[in-house]
Amino acid sequence: MIGISGATKNLGVIGWPIVHSLSPAMQTAAIRAAGADYAYIAMPVRPEALAQAVEGLRSLDFRGFNVTIPHKTAVIDCLDEIDEDARRIGAVNTVVNENGRLLGRNTDVAGFLKGLSRRGVEIENKKVVILGAGGAARAVVWGVIREKAAKITVGVRDAKKAGAALADFSQLADIEVCSWSDARFEAALAAADLLVNTTPLGMTPKIDEAPPVEWKHVKPEAFVYDIIYTPERTRFLREAEARGHRVLNGTAMLVGQGAEAFAMWTGIRPDEAVMEKALLESLRAKEQETES
Which of 79, 122, 233, 253 has the highest local Cβ count within 10 Å? Predict the structure, then answer.
């Protein structure tokens, strides 16, 4: 393992709060496995100090950094350039410093799609139902648009509000927004090849919650994906498995987006198995802390 020296390149993650971030464990494991001369740290940045902090990281010649809540949108105004994924989603989660120019990227789309491709799930010409219309949903919607889904239905509590939030995608794909109680949502569930939960329903500590899906309407061959990664099996996924569906949780997306960021900073494809192991160990340690 390479020790920290004057030649070590700096990486990190900014957010507020940041103490619960899993990125340091995951990225440090990738750095060690690759034998790369980098160091990755978590940096708490208050919202009112964001612009100053970003300029400080530029001045300190950080090679790059991740961006998490609540800075993913606000950080765009602090950067020199953003990529198409970040522009479409309206959020940046990775910044690369290229000789003083700060380039904003969004690797959530790549992470989301990688999880599906590894399970052999194809999206082109398929019908997709997405639950929720928040920031995470935008990444998923843009991802399935990129992969040429035939039809996208977004199920939400408030269709009017969600429709306005997703209106910029309407010219790019056949996309419909409807409430969970709408008969159109039930029909979309019956036709779905891929069902994705992007809501926080079921996330720790509220593990008894789940989106209102009537599983009897979902065809058995539909693939079910919950981007929540804590707990490892949400009520939503447990119900899907009980009905015989193939399922995937959010660990794949989290590792995938982190691996893409690592490659952008270092030019090295990381060992994703090592990253996933470190992530799961960190998650389980946090669970034990909560229980004790």
Answer: 253
